[in-house]
Design goal:
single chain; 71 residues; mainly beta; five-stranded antiparallel sheet
Length: 71
């Protein structure tokens, strides 16, 4: 996860599965410059997940599909 914070931004994230169960999350933290977190999804089962990123109270959602079956 990478975000270029132009000022002293407050950034947090949450990853949930299709049922809304929280997989991982971070408390909002203030940062300026490059915000970078390495997230490990190797233990996740195949399926649909959503990453919710909050920057200064504004939320953004990204859909992730995990598929290791090779189809």
């Amino acid at each position: 996860l990478q975000y270029d914070a132009l000022m002293n931004d407050e950034i947090g994230y949450r990853v949930v599965d299709i049922t809304g169960r929280v997989i991982t999350e971070s408390m909002p933290e203030k940062t300026a410059g490059l915000f970078e977190k390495q997230l490990d999804f190797t233990a996740l089962k195949d399926g649909v997940y959503f990453m919710n990123i909050t920057v200064n109270g504004n939320s953004y959602r990204s859909k992730m599909i995990i598929s290791r079956s090779g189809n």
